[in-house]
What we know:
Blueprint: H1 3-9, E1 10-15, H2 19-27, E2 29-34, H3 58-67, H4 73-81, H5 85-107, E3 111-116, H6 122-128, E4 135-140, H7 141-145, E5 154-155, E6 157-159, E7 170-174, E8 179-183, E9 188-192, E10 195-199, E11 207-209, E12 217-222, E13 234-238, E14 244-247
Helix pairs in contact: 3-4, 3-5
Amino acid sequence: MSLSEVEDSCLFRYRHFNKNTVKEILNKEIWHSDVNNLNDPFEFPIILDWSEIDRKDKSLLTKYAMHFDFLPLDEITYYCLNDKLDLLHSIINDNLHGASLAMKEYYESLYVCCFSKSLRDPLMWSHYSDGMKGLCIAYDKNILKGTNEYKNLNPVVYNKKPIEFLFKDFRTDKISSEFKYYDEVHKENRIAEPRLIRLNTFEHLYQKHERWAYEGEVRNIVDLDIPRSKRKDGALVKYPSDAIKAIL
């Protein structure tokens, strides 16, 4: 394979030449970092703003309650028709706050691996390859992308400001446990299914400030479902044995 073919078909990882890098190559694994160890304030900008519901607009509160499925329709209708918008707002706000904290904790539990589209940038060799004394590993991007472990391998978008979240960017997922709450409509305790807020896609997680645009980054995001008590700075993720096409 010629150098030009490598550049056309591969993604690149700049590494120090040390035991860890050698182990990654021999064991067919790539280090994925904990998101808290990434190097830019834009990384995973889980900045949520639900302040528009503070207007306590009936139609807006209804839209939020129905979108996130926080309440049965008959309860939403009751609050709206009986001038109990303060109570409806309080229920929605409390649910959003609690679910948002859980969502942020979830996305901070993901692991990220950073590749580059560029092989020839001297800054990349200098910053990530031990001051140009290290090496660069070329991985076939189609082979990686074809595996379940690298299905979230996508280019980074470079912006001046982080992409803003809108409520439609989120969904709620049911979780197994249930809890009791007091139903104002029927004046009785009822059983509810708790939900966690999740992003519909990882799109917002592929962004960095434009100062880093020279990196031409392509990143992979994995959810390894590792218990908090066993989490480390990162994790090694297997890749197909034929993915490496060159080591420079």
